[in-house]
Amino acid sequence: MKISFGKKIPITQCKIKDIEQNKFVPATFYEVDCKDKEDILEIAHLNGIWNFKNTIVRNMKIKHDTPGLIPANELPYFYILEIGKGLILGISQVKKEGRNISVQFIESKNDNKHKYVGQVMLASLGLNVINEKKYRLIISGPTENARAFYIDKCGFKTQYNGNLKMNSKHIHRFIRQTQKKTQAPLIDIRI
């Protein structure tokens, strides 16, 4: 894995569509480790309407303020999708639960200027499932208005408890589909 002395750890390189320019632009999917307060402030000061921003910031603060007090396997992981010089277009919070990666919160900036942000973030998390030899990607408690996106656009299946799941076999298909839509490979840059 590449070591980053900055506040963000690059995970994947990909592309998303810039609607205004009608072209695909490079993007990077980062893990934010919450070791520095600047990590939290960057998310806290995001412009625009973000439904999950405050919850994610609160959970980032807990992770920052309690190193060693809470077992690492109980703490969430935080990710952002960024283009250009620091323009964050997507944020997410996930938990690694046994052989699953469970998405607790995920959203893209509601600016109608970019396309495929959510799919690229989910495909990057799916790549984590594969590379970490986990079994499935789960959407925990999906909002009702996002359910159709997860099922129809991404291929998630409904579980008995209302969560959505995608097994590793289907993750490969979803990654290929996302790469085709974005006209670019999804490259794990940690290797």
Describe this structure in words.
By secondary structure, the protein is an alpha+beta fold. 32% of the residues lie in helices and 32% in strands. It has five helices and ten strands. The protein has helices at residues 37-44, 53-65, 117-131, 144-154, 168-182, and strands at 8-18, 23-32, 77-83, 87-97, 100-108, 114-115, 136-139, 157-158, 164-167, 187-188. Strands 1, 2, 3, 4, 5, 6, 7, 8, 9 and 10 form a ten-stranded mixed β-sheet that branches. Helix 3 (117-131) crosses helix 5 (168-182). It starts with 7 loop residues before the first strand and ends with a strand.
Q: How do the helices and strands line up, and which of them pair or pack?
A:
Elements: E1 8-18, E2 23-32, H1 37-44, H2 53-65, E3 77-83, E4 87-97, E5 100-108, E6 114-115, H3 117-131, E7 136-139, H4 144-154, E8 157-158, E9 164-167, H5 168-182, E10 187-188
Parallel strand pairs: 5-7
Antiparallel strand pairs: 1-2, 1-6, 1-10, 2-3, 3-4, 4-5, 7-9, 8-9
